[in-house]
Design brief:
Blueprint (H helix, E strand, L loop, with lengths): L1 E5 L3 H11 L5 E6 L3 H11 L3 E3 L2 H6 L5 E4 L6 H10 L3 E4 L7 H5 L1
Length: about 100
C-alpha cells in the first residue's frame, strides 16, 4: 500500500515510523506547508515523492491511502478532496469542526 502523509508534524513522524514497520506498506509521498519542515521530514523518512501542495499529492494516481495530520480546522477540505479522488483516508482527530461539515 502506498501511503501519503499530509503534514509534517510530530504525529506525522510517528505515523511514518509505523508505516515503515508494516511490510505491506511504504511511505510513498508527503506534503507539507513549510518547505523547511518538508525537507527535514523527507530526509528522515525518504518518501519517493514530496509535494508542497496537498492537492497535487491527492491527485497522484499511485497514492492508495492518505493520512491527514493537519491542524483541525484544515481537515475538512482535505478529507473532501481525498474522498473525491477515491483515496482511502485516515485522519487525525477531529474529522471536522462542526456537524454540518461532518455530514458532508
Amino acid at each position: 500500500m502506498n501511503w501519503a502523509i499530509i503534514g509534517t508534524s510530530f504525529i506525522s513522524d510517528v505515523m511514518a515510523e509505523a508505516i515503515k514497520g508494516d511490510e505491506g506498506s511504504q511511505l510513498y509521498a508527503v506534503s507539507g506547508r513549510s518547505k523547511e519542515n518538508l525537507r527535514a521530514f523527507s530526509q528522515k523518512h525518504h518518501p519517493q515523492k514530496t509535494y508542497s501542495d496537498y492537492q497535487d499529492l491527492i491527485q497522484d494516481p499511485d497514492v492508495d491511502m492518505v493520512y491527514i495530520a493537519l491542524p483541525n480546522h484544515l481537515h475538512h477540505e482535505c478529507i473532501i478532496k481525498a474522498a473525491e479522488a477515491g483515496k482511502a483516508i485516515l485522519c487525525e482527530k477531529s474529522l471536522s469542526i462542526d456537524m454540518e461539515k461532518t455530514k458532508q
